[in-house]
Amino acid sequence: MPITSNSFDACYAIEATVHASTLEGVYGEAYRILKPDGVFGCYECVLTDNFDPTDLEHLRIARGIEIGNGITKMRTAKECVQALKNVGFVVEKAFGSAANGDKIKWYSPLQGDILKANSVWDYPTLLRTSYFGRTTAM
Is there a contact between 9 and 35 (Cβ–Cβ < 8 Å)? Predict the structure, then answer.
C-alpha cells in the first residue's frame, strides 16, 4: 500500500482478509502501517476448530461458502491467529462468534426456512435462499 510506515494508531478489516491470497501479506501491511503499540481489529469468516478436512460434508460446506463468496480458500481460526503472530502482532483476544449462545444462529437466513423469519424484513432473504427461490433463479 502506498502508505507511510508507522502512520496509524489503529486499523481494521471487516470480512475482507478472507479474500487475500496470503494472510501474512495483508496482515503484514496492517502491521507495517501501524505505529508501535497500534491496534489492529479484524472480523473474519473462518473455519472453526471443529472443521475436519477429512469429513466430506465439512469440505462440501466449506466449498459452498468459497464459491458463494468468491473466496479462493477458507482458513481456520488457528491459521489466522498464527499468521497474525508470524508478522509480529501480539494477539490479545481471538474468539468465534458462531458459538456465542444466541437463540437465532448467524446462519439462520442461509437455511431458507420461512418459519425462521423474525420480522417482515427477513422474508426477502429467506425467500431467496429457500428451495423455491434458488430453483426459480436458475
Answer: yes
Higher-pLDDT residue of 101 and 44 is 44
C-alpha cell at 123: 422474508
Longest CA–CA separation in the chain, Å:
54
Nearest to 66 by CA among 130, 18, 16, 13: 18
Would the pLDDT of 77 be above 80?
yes
Q: Global pTM?
A: 0.77
Domains with residue ranges and CATH for the chain: 1-97 (3.40.50.150), 105-138 (no CATH)
Contacts of 86 (CB under 8 A, 6+ apart): 24, 27
